[in-house]
Amino acid sequence: MPYLLLGVGFFLFIFSILMLAIPSLNLFDWVMIEWLGQHRTLSLNRIFIALSTIGGMPFVLFLTTIWCLHQAWYKKYTNVIFISLGLIGSIATVWLLKYVISRPRPPEMYHLVQSYGASFPSAHSIYAAALGCLAIYLSQKHPQHTLICICAFVWLFIMGISRVYLGVHFPSDVLAGWSIGFIWITLLYLLYVKFSRAKTN
After folding, report:
1. At what angle do helices 145-165 and 42-54 cross, to 10 degrees?
2. Please, are residues 27 and 172 in contact by the beta-carbon 8 Å criterion?
3. How far apart are CA 118 and CA 15, in angstroms?
4. Contact, 183 vs 77, CB < 8 A?
5. Which of 4, 29, 33, 81 has the fewest CB atoms within 10 Å, i.e. is most exposed?
6. Positive or negative, the Cα torsion across 52, 58, 60, 63?
7. Cα(first)–Cα(last) distance of the chain, in Å?
8. Continuous H helices in the chain
9. Which of 180, 18, 155 is nearest to 98 (CA)?
10. What's the pTM value of the predicted model, to 2 decimals?
11. What is the CA radius of gyration of the chain?
12. Which residues contact 54 (CB under 8 A, 6 or more apart)?
């Protein structure tokens, strides 16, 4: 699983960069923004606006804090460090790339929610991917691991789609967000495994 996610992450990141650089692929970004903008409904608007709040940094930090406290209660301090570094690294990476690339967001006429910072990559998407990957890796011995994996991928997929639907991100922003989440958390997990093995030997 780790090397599969790492491979998918690198593929999506390269593809998202190509979408920025190649006009024919960049056109797909605009087509999707316009198409989703024309197929909005009041019910979907409410659902995706709610998801925007849940997937934002304040709630993600709150959720992660609760998760870390739960792990600390059971004296799983290595997990606490893994989760904390995973989220902090994701936040730092996404905002650094936003500053460096400085891609403008889609026109405000498409926006259904307020947004901050540049467009590429999507912060909501990287947070969702990071939390999803953390849940997948830390639940490998859980009896419901398969269900947790399914829920994690459904969550990050819906969160990514919501950002395009709400008109604040292009599809390539979302792909980049997912890819960074996959790559960062997987690399961190491989170090985590190496450290755990060294500790037990």
Report:
1. 120
2. no
3. 19
4. no
5. 4
6. negative
7. 24
8. 2-21, 23-38, 42-54, 57-73, 77-101, 123-138, 145-165, 171-200
9. 180
10. 0.91
11. 17
12. none
- Computed from CA positions of residues 65, 71, 73, 78, in that sequence, does the dihedral angle turn out positive or negative? negative
Q: How far is it between the farthest Cα atoms of the chain? A: 59
List, in order of start, the domains of the chain with CATH numbers: 2-200 (1.20.144)
Q: Are 191 and 27 in contact (CB under 8 A)?
A: no
Q: Which residue has the tokens 């890796």?
A: 137
What is the dihedral sign for C-alpha 34, 156, 131, 200?
negative
Could you give the CA distance from residue 166 to residue 122 in angstroms, rounded to a whole number? 12
- Provide the token pair at 13: 């990141």
Mean pLDDT in consecutive groups of 10 residues from the start of the chain, 201 residues: 89 92 90 91 93 89 92 89 92 92 90 88 93 91 89 93 94 95 93 73 58
Task: At 139, list the tokens.
Answer: 């639940």
Separation between Cα atoms, residue 74 and residue 14, nearest integer Å: 40
Task: List, as one string, the DSSP characters of 97-144.
Answer: HHHHH-PPPSPGGG-SS---S-SSS-HHHHHHHHHHHHHHHHTTTSTT
